[in-house]
Amino acid sequence: MAGQSEQTSSRPAAVHIADEIYAIYRNVAGVLYVAPKVIRFVVSKECVDKKSDESYKKYMERLKGKEFSKTEWKRHGGTIAEDLSHPDDLDITGLYALLEKLSRLHDECWRSVALADSENKSEGDLATATSSMSGGGQPNNNEELPGGDTKCPLEKLSRLGMNGLPRDVDKLFDKLRKVKNLRNEIMHEFEVTLNNEKFSELKTALSELIEEAERVYSLPQSEVEDQKKNLHDDFESLQTTDKKSIYYWCTRLAMSGKLAVKNLWKTKLSKETLPLLNSIVQRLEVFHALDVMVREGPNGQVLPYTEIFKAPEKAIIVSGVAGAGKTTLLKNIVLQFFELQEGNADYLRQFNQLILFECRDRTTETLADVIKQHFKELCRELEGKRNVLDALLRLDALFIIDGYDEVNKVSTNVVEEIIKKTSSSNCRVLITTRPHSAKEKLEMLLATNDVISTEFEIKPLTELNEQLEFLARYEKSLGIKKGEMTESFKTLNNDVRILFTEPINLILFCDMHKHMPETISSWEKPGDVANDILRLYKKLVTRKLADVTHLECEVMLDDLFVVIGKAALEFIRENTVTFSEKELLQVKRKCIQILKSTVECSSEIILSVVLKVNRPLSGAGKTTYTFHHKSIQEMFAAEFIVQRILARNDSLKSILKAKPKEMSSLREVLQYAVQGLSRLRPGAA
């Protein structure tokens, strides 16, 4: 073997790569194509009583004699779609789960029939004895005849195996687990994927599975031999690499797909810029591991975020209020995905590919375009993004959808396509959203595509020690003297500190500590904090204006913030958090008109502080602009509402100009507005 290794290493690189492709191709095609065929054969023998047009759900309901409620099916059916009637699209994992559920249910049927027959026999014996004692051989009119044998709903499937004894499926599932484990090793451990011996191991394991199925289902010898011949022919067909096969595309993704995604995202996500400090920190260094709460199930059940993928459902929804850390959590999950080789983030080992899509994206029109952004070179080499997408859907890919509450007309199409395409694949989807969006549009979208989901809500940082731990990470990363910022935070009263249960507000506290530390001690109500954050923006703009004028700018700044606040409200009303150059042009024009009355300067001086340039993380599409966080956009919009009410006593309806369906987008804005009015007019709100 050592000599062989030496010889291999001296080969030209192209030959070495060809050998790797060959090894991976055979192993991948073996577990994605050949193995599912064999297991589907076993499934067909297990459910011979199922009608061809009957879904597995309807079949199971028929055997149980009752319908499943939605909650019961979610618990019992797992990832099996309600309308699934054929296992053609299921891979080894899905087939194993289906066979396990069917086998367990069939055993329950036989046990219940045996129990009923036993009870009927006991009742019959008792009735006979009673009749004899009363001197008559026939029951009187008030007696019931003992029931005959209870009819079993399984008419074709035999409870007896080849040896005439009750069947024992334990060995069958041992063989299945061996195949399933080989599949997981090949698909998730690259070194195993390269191992030529795994190809032979898989063939042997599948042959043994067929032999065990023969014993469990009393199969005729001719049928068993046919299955073994098909198995042999399928493995022989994989001795030559077919570059037009979808399994060749899967092979290329297995070889270089993860590296392509790493090159796209790692540099762009590894650093975090604080909203107003313009300071850069390493994202993983300041990441605070968040806990999540299960929305359904035991009340108050709290889990580490790393356990969300233990849920069996296809789609995982992570919800949280504004600034709860949803996007930050996703970005850290993406970064951790690239550390699997280092033994970290084992909870992500079940996935071999990852796709990230931001709902605020207004330029990427189709899922195929998303795939091209992630695998540009492969799409070019494999003759099209559609081929790469088809291959991706055969793998264990994780599709991450960030910010469903920020979805727009363009990104809606992409999200719908992701949900639809992944619904019948082995891929999973992780979606973040604000809670109200999760309950409404998103659940409807998932239900329409028969996708079962579970929801986790990010747990707020309510404990002082959690908040201090969060701030301490930034304190260290920003080079602030140890304890300086955390000690300042400790001085806050409980009414104010309750505002800092979300990560974005704690980050804004870092900004306030840097630029306006003297204001922190004056905070008495939550409304004071939002007001001072807006004051901080004005202070930073004033510093910029000081470079071009020595005139008093306070009134002008108030007017500028009215323009910006009105625009913020209008964009939120339309559920828009990213603005194109064209959309921002009207705001710029109004700002210029106000600036000209006091000083000659560009509107960029103002907008560069309030907004940030937002180039799509994928590198594709046009540059857009956003507020530093959606919650900050909501603060600006709320301040506009408050000032309109105070200055003109306008009605809320006339200020919002919102249609009923737009009101859900304004919930957080109105909460900030109430805080502002409470601060300025105690008792008015």
TrEMBL record:
Stretches assigned to coiled coil: none
Biased composition (Polar residues): 128-143
A Pfam short name: NACHT
Spans annotated as Disordered: 121-151
Superkingdom as given in the UniProt entry: Eukaryota
Gene3D superfamilies xrefs: P-loop containing nucleotide triphosphate hydrolases
Occurrences of domain NACHT (ranges): 314-435
InterPro entries named among the record's database cross-references: NACHT_NTPase, P-loop_NTPase
Record's protein name: Uncharacterized protein LOC125178107
Source species of the chain: Hyalella azteca (Amphipod)
Source taxonomy: Eukaryota, Metazoa, Ecdysozoa, Arthropoda, Crustacea
Name of the coding gene: LOC125178107
